[in-house]
Structures are given as C-alpha cells and as structure tokens.
DNA sequence: AAGCCGTGGAG
DNA sequence: TCTCCAAGGCT
C-alpha cells in the first residue's frame, strides 16, 4: 500500500509558493551552487544570505578562492561557525583547479572526493548545476519523508537512515533540481519540525501525518570554565594567537585561553595567570580589570568565561613557546575572529 | 559508531 | 534563561 508520489503534488505547490527569490536559486553556476550548499550546512537561510553575498563578491570563482589565503577565507567566514567548512572549501577550490580542470566534477564519486562534500551536498550540486537526477537527504527532506511515509523510531537510526535514503531516491523525479528545492521549501515553510502546518500542505491526504520521530534524549552539555587574557601593548595593540586548525575555532584568531577548573575564584589565580603568561608566551603582564562572566554555547559544551585585561610594556615575538601577534584596533574587524571576540572588540 | 564541530533565532 | 535545532561531514 504505497502512497502516491510526492513530486506530483509538490512541484505545482513549489511553482506557486516556493522561495524563488533566494540568491542561489536562479543560477546554474556550479561554483555558486556549491558555495551555497556548503554555507547552508546546518545553517539557516537567513543567516547565510549576507555571508554568501560578501563571500561571492570577494571570491567569485574557483580560481579566486584557490588563490586566496586561508586567513582571508576564514575572515569572511568569521561568525558563520563550523569553520572546517571554510578550510575545506579552500582546499576543495584548490582541488577543483588542480585536479578537475577548474570544473566541479559531473560524477558523484569524484564530487565526493572534495573535502567537506558529502553525499547530500554532492547530489544537490549535481542536480542543480547539471540537471542530474540526484537525491538529497537533508534535514528538511528527512522530516518530510519521515512523516509522509509514517516512519517510526529515531530519525538517525541506521535502519531509518537507509530507509530514508531509499525513499529519497525513489521519490526523486527526473526534474530533481526543482524537486530538491521544493522538498526543502516544504520542510522550511510548512512541514516544520515543531509545529507542522498540515492544513496548508499540498501533501495532505496521502501523507501519514505529522508523526514525530522518537527523540533521543540529548546528553546534558558539560560546562567548562576559562579566562581569556586581553593583552595590550603600550602602543594600543591587542595580542592574538592563531588557533590550530583542529578543534574549536580552528584557524581563527583568539585570545590566550586559560582553562579553569570551575567558576570559583582561586585566591592565587592572578599569580597563576602571570606564571602561565610567562611560561607559555614569554610575557610579564600587569593584570588589570576583570570583565563579567559570559556564557557561550558550543555544539557539545557550554563555556563560561571572563576576560581579564592586562598590559605589557615589553613585547617580543617568539619569547615564549606560543606566538602572539599584535593587531591595532582598526585591524580587528578584518580578522577571522570567533563571535564572542567580535562582540568584545566591537 | 559516536563524538566533534558554531551560531543565532524561535519558543 | 534555557533548550532545541538548522540545506552535514569528518574521524
């Protein structure tokens, strides 16, 4: 007892009610479509729009992106999050230029060789850029297919994962480009995760209804504590260090991060910080004002941090184990900074 | 396979 | 204030 195909009802609705004004909707440029797909991973459309505009203006082609420094790429990604996407996009552009003759692959297997391009992203680009019949399975398509076919259990269970991909392939018509956009619009506009607007849905009837996947209880996020050292030189520069490409804020510029065991004040914390600054960075800062506690939530932990101001009179690069670089206040806006630091400096 | 990787809006 | 979650992919 299989329900009728989704496409027959979905496509007319899409023509009428779809989001046809999105900046990447009209183009068939593989580079532009690729960039949109990467930025949209785990990220809302409205958040992406201004980043997409700026990024495309500065890096309008594979070649432009490949020629850029990673530092500048990250600077334009700053605030968008999941910075591995930017590092991967930079590497992918170089791979397209060097290995694929400057063209996004037309073959799914080759597209999957690009770092940061998984099955759904590759399929989305091949469908929209080249008109191929390729099925996507993003959060929207997942939710729509899950409900339409009345699935039960967890969305992410291996069984449902296989089943959802199978359904995605099965439902995707030859006009995959329009269908892929349409099912994403349906998920974003009507088939919402919390309150599905079934009364307006073109799939009402054959759809099994707004059945919900069984929620896997998410483990509580642990809280970590830290203080950030805001070091200023006598000529007003701020000292920043480049974070390693792995881990939180990979490749971005940040303040020295001293991990604390807890939120409780330690009597000798100032002395500890001075010793740490000397051993790690070769500095002898004069500590100043504490900022108030702030909370920043990452994917898998909360960070409670406070900034402490500090002045240094003598500064030389390379005196400690870890390098710090001075930046004048007017330079900071152009840097690849994580959001909390962009706020701090603004 | 499950943990890792950001951020901001919605409720 | 807090949790949830959004055009996922990598290790």
From TrEMBL:
Enzyme class: hydrolase
Family annotation (SMART domains): ENDO3c
Matches recorded under SUPFAM superfamilies: DNA-glycosylase, Nudix
Naturally occurring in which organism (per UniProt): Igneacidithiobacillus copahuensis
The name this protein goes by in its record: Adenine DNA glycosylase
Catalytic activity, as annotated: Hydrolyzes free adenine bases from 7,8-dihydro-8-oxoguanine:adenine mismatched double-stranded DNA, leaving an apurinic site
Cofactor binding remark: Binds 1 [4Fe-4S] cluster.
UniProt key word Hydrolase: yes
Entry keyword annotation includes DNA damage: yes
Essential cofactor(s): [4Fe-4S] cluster
InterPro entries for the chain: A/G_AdeGlyc_MutY (IPR005760), DNA_glycosylase (IPR011257), HhH-GPD_domain (IPR003265), HhH_base_excis_C (IPR023170), MIG/MutY (IPR044298), MutY_C (IPR029119), NUDIX_hydrolase-like_dom_sf (IPR015797)
Function in brief: Adenine glycosylase active on G-A mispairs. MutY also corrects error-prone DNA synthesis past GO lesions which are due to the oxidatively damaged form of guanine: 7,8-dihydro-8-oxoguanine (8-oxo-dGTP).
Species classification: Bacteria, Pseudomonadati, Pseudomonadota, Acidithiobacillia, Acidithiobacillales
Family, as annotated: Belongs to the Nth/MutY family.
Domain HhH-GPD: 39-189
Gene Ontology molecular functions: 4 iron, 4 sulfur cluster binding; 8-oxo-7,8-dihydroguanine DNA N-glycosylase activity; adenine/guanine mispair binding; metal ion binding; oxidized purine DNA binding; purine-specific mismatch base pair DNA N-glycosylase activity
GO biological process, one term: mismatch repair
């Amino acid at each position: 007892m299989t329900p009728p195909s989704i496409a027959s009802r979905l496509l007319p609705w899409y023509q009428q009610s779809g989001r046809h004004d999105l900046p990447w909707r009209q183009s068939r440029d593989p580079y532009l479509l690729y960039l949109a797909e990467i930025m949209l991973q785990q990220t809302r459309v409205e958040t992406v729009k201004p980043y997409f505009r700026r990024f495309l203006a500065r890096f309008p082609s594979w070649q432009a992106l490949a020629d850029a420094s990673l530092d500048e790429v990250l600077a334009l990604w700053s605030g968008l999050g999941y910075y591995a996407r930017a590092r991967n996009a930079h590497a992918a552009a170089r791979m397209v230029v060097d290995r694929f003759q400057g063209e996004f692959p037309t073959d799914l297997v080759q597209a999957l060789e690009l770092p940061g391009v998984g099955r759904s992203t590759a399929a989305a680009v091949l469908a929209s850029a080249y008109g191929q019949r390729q099925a996507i399975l993003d959060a929207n398509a997942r939710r729509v297919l899950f409900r339409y076919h009345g699935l039960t259990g967890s969305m992410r269970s291996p069984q449902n994962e296989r089943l959802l991909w199978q359904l995605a392939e099965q439902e995707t018509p030859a006009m995959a480009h329009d269908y892929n956009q349409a099912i994403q619009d349906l998920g974003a506009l009507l088939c919402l995760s919390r309150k599905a607007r079934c009364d307006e849905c073109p799939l009402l009837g054959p759809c099994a209804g707004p059945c919900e996947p069984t929620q896997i209880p998410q483990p509580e996020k642990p809280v970590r504590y830290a203080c950030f050292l805001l070091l200023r030189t006598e000529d007003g520069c701020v000292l920043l260090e480049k974070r390693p490409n792995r881990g939180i804020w990979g490749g971005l510029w940040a303040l020295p991060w001293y991990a604390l065991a807890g939120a409780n004040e330690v009597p000798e914390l100032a002395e500890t910080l001075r010793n740490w600054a000397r051993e790690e960075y070769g500095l002898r800062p004069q500590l100043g004002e504490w900022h108030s506690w702030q909370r920043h939530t990452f994917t898998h932990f909360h960070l409670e941090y406070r900034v402490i101001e500090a002045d240094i009179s003598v500064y030389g690069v390379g005196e400690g184990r870890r390098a710090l670089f001075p930046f004048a206040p007017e330079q900071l806006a152009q840097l690849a900074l994580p959001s909390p630091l962009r706020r701090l400096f603004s």
